[in-house]
Fold this sequence. Notes:
31% of the residues lie in helices and 34% in strands. By secondary structure, it is of the alpha+beta class. Strands 1-2-3-4-5-6-8-7 form an eight-stranded mixed β-sheet, sandwiched between helices.
Amino acid sequence: xxxxxxxxxxxxxxxxxxxxxxxxxxxxxxxxxxxxxxxxxxxxxxxxxxxxxxxxxxxxxxxxxxxxxxxxxxxxxxxxxxxxxxxxxxxxxxxxxxxxxxxxxxxxxxxxxxxxxxxxxxxxxxxxxxxxxxxxxxxxxxxxxxxxxxxxxxxxxxxxxxxxxxxxxxxxxxxxxxxxx
Length: 181
Ligand SMILES: CC(C)(COP(=O)(O)OP(=O)(O)OC[C@H]1O[C@@H](n2cnc3c(N)ncnc32)[C@H](O)[C@@H]1OP(=O)(O)O)[C@@H](O)C(=O)NCCC(=O)NCCS
């Protein structure tokens, strides 16, 4: 089983487990309207049972080696989710996704978490390429790969359907040979 990843003095990525379902649901519920603006799933996560089902699903994906999501814990509280949303073992390639509670935005937590996750990806999982996609107008999300030195590789037009619109994605990539921890 995957172990926790340290990302700072009080910041840790821990594999999601069923006992996190209540805390995870509370976090989604209190951030629902802003998450909905950039992510497709908040409207289908409406009860603690939905959060349990999500955790069971991602644990199954983790066992298959197809994804690797973590709860992000800061000072002992769950503050978001970050992880590899897909892993392509044949090409040693993976994509990172993330979201954070509004109350803890602006402290550099997600940048530190993504940096620690990328290090884990390149060093432990032996990945060759890590990708991050963000809505072209999602300034906060785009700033994370930019801060970490990912290369902006292009734009995928209308790549994602959200509740009220299609969103273009800015694609960022980092290769193992470019990664400077
Ligand atoms: C995307 C998201 C995770 C970014 O959160 P964030 O708090 O801006 O990112 P970080 O935690 O890395 O913090 C960066 C901020 O902390 C500041 N900061 C403070 N100390 C810092 C440090 N040591 N290192 C880096 N940044 C630091 C940065 O200046 C920046 O603030 P600014 O934008 O006001 O300049 C968050 O906005 C979110 O969850 N949004 C909704 C869901 C979403 O869009 N998910 C992504 C879908 S692609």
